[in-house]
Amino acid sequence: MAAKRRPGRNHLFVPGPTNIPDRVQRAMLVPSEDHRSVEFPELTKPLFEDTKKVFGSTDGTIFLFPASGTGIWESALTNTLARGDKVLASRFGQFSHLWIDMAKRLGLDVVVQEEAWGTGADPAKIEQALRDDKNHDIKAVMVVHNETATGVTSDIGAVRKAIDAAGHPALLFVDGVSSIGSLPFNATEWKVDCAIAGSQKGLMLPAGLGVICVSPKAIKAAEGSAGSNDRLARVYFDWEDHKKQNHLGYFPYTPSLPLLYGLREALACLFEEGLENVYHRHHVLGEATRQAVAAWGLKTCAKEPKWNSDTVTAIVVPEGVDAAKIIKHAFVRYNLALGAGLSEVAGKVFRIGHVGDLNELSLLGAIAGAEMSMIDNGINVTPGSGVAAASSYLRENPLSKS
Predict the structure, then answer these.
(1) Is the model's pTM score more than 0.85?
(2) How far is the CA of 134 from the CAs of 9, 26, 29, 137, 277, in angstroms?
(3) 105 marked among binding-site residues
(4) Helix axis angle, 257-273 to 275-296, nearest 10°
(5) Does 123 sit behind a cis peptide bond, omega within 30 degrees of 0 on the bond before it?
(6) Among 22, 52, 179, 386, which is least packed, fewest CB within 10 Å?
(7) Rounded to 5°, angle at Cα 208 from 94 and 95
(8) CA-CA distance, 218 to 149, in Å (whole number)?
(9) How does the average pLDDT of the chain come out, rounded?
(10) What domains does the chain contain, in order, with CATH numbers?
């Protein structure tokens, strides 16, 4: 039997993929073309420079891969490190766990610093581990900037200060998949050596375009490992192949043309709004969501306000309630897509993503739908309380600074 049609739009409030602006969708409706033509660099060359601005980089190199963020993780590790190299990583959520798992499977020696889920990377612990590493065996520090599983943002500036205070030469790798294009990111100031992004979050595109911003230090590390017998195997993700082609405006293999055109338009959207306004808008929407959570009498997964993410809020349901039922009911009854709890917090939280192309009324729709689904599932929430708290905050706090 055919599925029943649902009137209206599906309200997408997972923390990625995010809503795609209409103008970006239109920009991706392009015919196939020759990606070796003399005109193709007119599209691509500006992309390499403009994308750096979203990373807060003045001296980095951008590589664009037809891949997800996971592929870009692999790119960072395999281009700069050798088999058996030691890396330091903080684990405090599903995505930091997956990156650690990848590093181990690639043959790296991972020193894991366990942190409570609902917190983030601990700069003091990172500094101490690096001070104790007298022989500088640790080659890289890996940190997830924004952990979507728990709605937590780590302080990358503080991590950089910790590395510098220890006087350690380790590379700094940062997963910015759910932060870059939505939260302030300063790759040059923080001396991030590999900053990783995916197209389906703050860049407001479909999944499938992986982006990495690589520092001169990381480029040098990659060049130094090129002739090593212990180098990690890489072919598809080899930066060297891209370096030979990108400066001319081309790629070593067939790129995703629609995503490149979409990226150009998405960057135009971000720059027209102004990056500072983009960051401010996400903060206001994040705080409005937290106001709703408080009005419901619930708590977020983030254990302290300093950990609050402005792109996703993970909401802890009362003891004995299955958050998965709230998510399913919201989808089936109200055509609202909420994020599920992952791994250690599966069934314990549901997530409202407030990232990408959305405004006040968009968010209020998600808050209203989540509120109704909770009430329908027996949670003692006062009808309208979350919407009222969020709308009061939004009326007093414009989304734009200018």
Answers:
(1) yes
(2) 57, 55, 55, 8, 44
(3) no
(4) 80
(5) no
(6) 22
(7) 10
(8) 28
(9) 96
(10) 22-270 (3.40.640.10), 274-396 (3.90.1150.10)
